[in-house]
Backbone:
């Protein structure tokens, strides 16, 4: 019984990491007043770019060096999600396109890129079979040597790949930067009232571009964690599923605060897999239990909107594009 | 990128908004058409890079794949009709700036509602009665899925885009649940329902499938055009969309408009779900709407909420998806290439709107 609970908590934490990357990234983006609905697409691209980078490296050398495997796939993942974020930033900021439509198009595009290269990468290199990066995957999953010898403590806290800890570090850092530094203050000002921020001498467009870029790259790491750590270097089409949309929902659940996102992601991660751990469920009943994360999101949405507390509201200019001459 | 920004600030040129009548319609359309052409060139470049084929051959393969035979053409028109139907359904809500991202789920629940009847009482009713009850239940299902978020939006201003998005997944899980219950083998794929009796199947017109779907959507297009352009409801929708405060000031009951419009929008999505189940697939899966619920939002936006223009935009997207799918199969590549191309075309068209709404002027040199 105890070990069932331990393994449930562990599984929930693993499920929560992509959600945490995604929601932290989206919070950073939304703080500048941009609702990026392209995050699910960016996460797909973050995953597949890592796979492509790792694949090309593993297949160009005889014996792959694990450190280089991690480094190359990590950087190519960041590049992929940065490119995606730039498309969004350029269209919404420089060309003042509608954020929702751009975001949805980006998600269509990104999911397409992920599934296309996931399904065709080997054929493009004239190989057959399915993608499986053994060296890279195991390098991402590497844990401290004594992690499995320290009993429950080790299993619960030490048994994850480095990306899991990075997720938590990034969201704590984001929380500190947003709330305790001048940069964070400026960013929040841009999100609340870009015209006021502009008048105060803040470079609004620069802040918006950077927060979209950094937010997107953070979210992309969630895709990388999924393909490298969770599935150990293998790609299955649509395997990442709807986690990107859940990450956007968690932003509301976390009330736009990165440090709340840690616990929220954990709760959602648990809800996501709880059906596996309830004994005696029929497969039909499991499908009903799988509704939980979405139902909880809806209930939270309603709850927040009825409470209407000021500090729990989204940035005031969320979703609006800023044009100097129009204010 | 950075250069672009700093340049703009250093007053070598600046951007200003065009006044409403500044750009003649033909110029706006030239810009849009040019952007579509550029995007098609970019798309073909990508296909050429991936397949190593001559671009002309790629296009001819796309055209052959979509128009090559009567059957292929009919499938293309049917795909267009479904995408157009969902686009029409989401349009009134969007025009009032209600971000309904739940068309996918509203279609799915419409399909599920009529599938329940088709599967459970398919052999107990005369076919015409069965089809009418199926139609009604689909519409009611769609209404429920659209109305629930609208009620909360009207009452507490609950964020509708996330609410409707979550409703999609609840619909998906309900469909998975139903399939698990109905298909005892646990294979989670439902075969054709009533394949021998054809109970609940829309009849073929002129000896061909899909004709009823196509006619229904064509009628819907005309109705929606008149509804949005000439009816009082259509006027109220556009006022609420422009400014809620103006709407309140001139005595429009905003809450009522939100609820009424979402009932209408959900009902049409449910209707499309009915067409898909009764007229096209005769089965149900989680993929019933196949992402069209999201694509429809972009189709509607690209057409500037004009139902007639929507015929063109949905045809363009449907053609591209069909053609790209053909290329992918013939080169043994993954069919997701269609989504990549759709994304690229939409990027270009939404980008082109900038050049319609704004103009870039050279700034006269000022003494520093």
Residues:
């Amino acid at each position: 019984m105890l070990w069932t609970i331990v393994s449930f908590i562990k599984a929930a934490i693993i499920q929560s990491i992509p959600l945490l990357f995604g929601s932290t990234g989206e919070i950073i983006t939304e703080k500048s007043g941009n609702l990026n609905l392209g995050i699910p697409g960016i996460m797909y691209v973050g995953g597949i770019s890592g796979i492509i980078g790792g694949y090309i490296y593993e297949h160009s050398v005889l014996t792959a060096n694990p450190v280089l495997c991690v480094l190359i796939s990590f950087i190519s993942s960041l590049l992929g999600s940065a490119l995606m974020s730039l498309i969004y930033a350029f269209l919404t900021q420089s060309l003042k396109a509608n954020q929702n439509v751009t975001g949805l198009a980006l998600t269509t595009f990104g999911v397409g890129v992920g599934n296309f290269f996931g399904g065709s990468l080997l054929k493009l290199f004239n190989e057959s079979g399915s993608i499986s990066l053994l060296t890279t995957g195991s390098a991402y999953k590497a844990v401290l040597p004594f992690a499995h010898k320290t009993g429950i403590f080790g299993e619960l806290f030490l048994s994850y790949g480095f990306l899991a800890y990075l997720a938590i570090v990034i969201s704590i850092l984001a929380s500190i930067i947003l709330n305790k530094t001048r940069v964070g203050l400026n960013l929040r000002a841009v999100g609340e009232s870009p015209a006021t921020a502009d008048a105060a001498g803040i470079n609004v467009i620069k802040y918006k571009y950077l927060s979209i870029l950094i937010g997107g790259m953070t979210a992309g790491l969630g895709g990388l964690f999924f393909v490298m750590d969770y599935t150990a270097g293998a790609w299955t089409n649509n395997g990442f599923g709807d986690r990107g949309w859940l990450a956007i929902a968690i932003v509301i659940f976390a009330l736009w605060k990165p440090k709340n996102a840690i616990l929220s992601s954990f709760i959602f991660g648990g809800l996501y897999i709880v059906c596996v751990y309830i004994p005696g469920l029929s497969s039909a009943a499991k499908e009903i239990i799988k509704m939980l994360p979405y139902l909880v999101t809806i209930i939270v949405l309603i709850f927040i909107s009825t409470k209407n507390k000021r500090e729990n509201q989204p940035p005031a200019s969320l979703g609006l594009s800023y044009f100097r001459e129009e204010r | 990128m950075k250069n672009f920004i700093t340049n703009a600030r250093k007053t070598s040129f600046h951007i200003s908004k065009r006044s409403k009548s500044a750009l003649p319609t033909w110029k706006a359309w030239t810009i849009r058409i040019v952007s579509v052409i550029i995007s098609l060139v970019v798309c073909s470049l990508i296909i050429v890079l991936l397949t190593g084929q001559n671009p002309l051959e790629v296009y001819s393969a796309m055209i052959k794949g979509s128009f090559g035979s009567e059957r292929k053409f009919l499938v293309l028109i049917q795909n267009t009709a479904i995408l157009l139907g969902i686009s029409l359904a989401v349009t009134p809500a969007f025009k009032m700036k209600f971000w309904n991202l739940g068309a996918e789920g509203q279609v799915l629940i419409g399909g599920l509602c009529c599938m329940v009847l088709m599967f459970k009482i398919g052999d107990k009713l005369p076919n015409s009665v069965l089809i009418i009850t199926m139609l009604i239940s689909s519409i009611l299902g769609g209404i429920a899925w659209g109305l629930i978020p609208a009620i909360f939006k009207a009452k507490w201003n609950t964020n509708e885009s996330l609410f409707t998005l979550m409703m999609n997944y609840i619909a998906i899980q309900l469909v998975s649940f139903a399939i698990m219950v109905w298909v005892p083998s646990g294979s989670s794929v439902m075969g054709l329902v009533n394949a021998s009796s054809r109970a609940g199947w829309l009849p073929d017109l002129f000896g061909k499938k899909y004709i009823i779907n196509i006619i229904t959507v064509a009628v819907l297009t005309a109705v929606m055009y008149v509804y949005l352009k000439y009816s009082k409801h259509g006027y109220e929708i556009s006022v609420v969309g422009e400014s809620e405060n103006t709407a309140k000031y001139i005595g429009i009951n905003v809450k009522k408009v939100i609820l009424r419009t979402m009932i209408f929008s959900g009902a049409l999505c449910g209707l499309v779900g009915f067409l898909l189940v009764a007229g096209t697939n005769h089965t149900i899966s989680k993929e019933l709407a196949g992402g069209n619920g999201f694509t429809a939002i972009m189709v509607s936006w690209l057409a500037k909420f004009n139902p007639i223009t929507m015929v063109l935009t949905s045809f363009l997207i449907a053609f591209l998806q069909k053609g790209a799918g053909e290329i992918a199969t013939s080169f043994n590549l993954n069919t997701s290439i269609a989504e990549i191309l759709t994304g690229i075309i939409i990027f270009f068209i939404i980008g082109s709107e900038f050049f319609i709404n704004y103009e870039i002027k050279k700034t006269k040199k000022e003494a520093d």
